[in-house]
Amino acid sequence: MDKKTITQYQKMINSGVCWHLEGSTGRFAMDLINNGYCCLGTKGHRDFYGNYVPSRYEVKTGTKGSLLYMLNKKHERGEKWKLI
User: Fold this and answer.
1) So where are the chain's domains?
2) For residue 84, what pLDDT is reported?
3) Which listed site, 6, 46, 55, 78, has its alpha carbon 20 to 30 Å from 15?
4) The pTM is what?
5) Cβ-proximal residues to 34 (8 Å cutoff; 6+ apart), any chain
6) What is the pLDDT of residue 16?
7) Residue 81 pLDDT grade (very low, low, confident, very high; cuts 50, 70, 90)
């Protein structure tokens, strides 16, 4: 996975912008979260349709979207990690 893309998407997830762009952007962001390339943002956000997207602090530690889940996945892939 391209580190520049991951960094850009993590910033859009953190700000909540990705949840208001076209559907493919939000779906790709969720794929990155589900695969542990990114984690949820520090604040919860509403998407374009009014659905609530929780923050990384609102999900159980170690589950998809949490910081620990992302770090564990990066470790499994043998990647070094840096918080964005």
Assistant:
1) 3-76
2) 57
3) 78
4) 0.90
5) 64
6) 97
7) low
